[in-house]
Design goal:
Elements lengths: L2 E5 L3 H10 L5 E4 L4 H11 L2 E2 L3 H7 L2 E4 L6 H6 L8 E4 L6 H7 L4 E6 L3 H4 L5 E4 L3 H8 L4 E3 L3 H8 L1 H21 L4 H21 L4 H7 L6 H11 L2 H15 L15
Parallel strand pairs: 1-2, 1-4, 2-3, 4-5, 5-6, 7-8
Antiparallel strand pairs: 6-7
Helix pairs in contact: 9-10
The structure holds NADP nicotinamide-adenine-dinucleotide phosphate (NAP).
NADP nicotinamide-adenine-dinucleotide phosphate binds next to α1 and α4.
Length: 263
Amino acid sequence: MTTIGILGVGGLAELMVRGLQGSGYRILLSPRGAQASARLAAAYGCEVAESNQAVVDGADGVFVSLPAATGAEELARLSFRPGQPVLSAMAGTGLARLQSVIGRARGAVAMMPGYANALRMGPSILYPEDGFWRDFLSKVGPVHGCDDEKTFTAAATFGAFSGATVGWMAHVIGWFEAQGLPANTARALVAGTLRGNAEVLLREDRPLDDIARGVTTPGGITELLLATLAGREALAAWDEGLDRVLTRIGGEPISSKKSDRSL
Ligand SMILES: NC(=O)c1ccc[n+]([C@@H]2O[C@H](COP(=O)([O-])OP(=O)(O)OC[C@H]3O[C@@H](n4cnc5c(N)ncnc54)[C@H](OP(=O)(O)O)[C@@H]3O)[C@@H](O)[C@H]2O)c1
């Protein structure tokens, strides 16, 4: 049985462990945060190692979900085996930085939404391509390999996009509630609408612009809402926010090419 060691047992680790349940991996957790590790051990049959080094020593591959600000420094204190697969999910820690602190181990970087992975529906991005980690990530959602690090870093902004869409849904659900809809109806309506539209984009073979046109009656209510959002620069604000996230995680936004697809 393949053993995955997890360094950093916080929010992401718990969601990944939940999604990996029944996938056939043995999971070995780092000991810090004894309560969380003990809870995961009891709920999902994980094991807890005595130290971070014991996680590395006892694992075939190491999944790193340490805090982005300090994780690389912690990795530098550990000894990895030559060729040992190490996957970092730490936002903003690029492959070169990861590789510089894991010696001759085999580094790769990934990003995923987190919560959706607990339901095995969260897409991941992976760089460079690595069969060990592709198999692992595919247990918790579809995996998209990236051809180069620049593309990976740009794609990794989707981690923020993912969380922001939850905040956006919560905002819109609040609007429906304020109009008198029961909270559970508002939540089901908003989430179900987005799920349905997401399935349309995933399953229909038509060009995106055709689909967007098809849902926008000229002079109709969708056009009214989009025009209102555009008039307040709400759509352009998504570009600005993504630019800022990309800059934060070490990328260089191509700011001149703004998306105007939905206008
Ligand atoms: N949350 C997500 O959905 C998500 C998705 C994609 C990527 N990520 C990335 O995953 C990483 C973790 O995010 P998170 O939300 O799970 O953060 P988190 O809840 O703060 O988890 C990080 C965990 O690492 C522990 N830790 C800190 N230093 C450690 C050390 N030296 N040795 C062992 N454990 C240590 C922390 O313990 P203490 O609390 O005791 O400090 C905490 O339990 C971040 O780098 C983030 O960018 C998160």
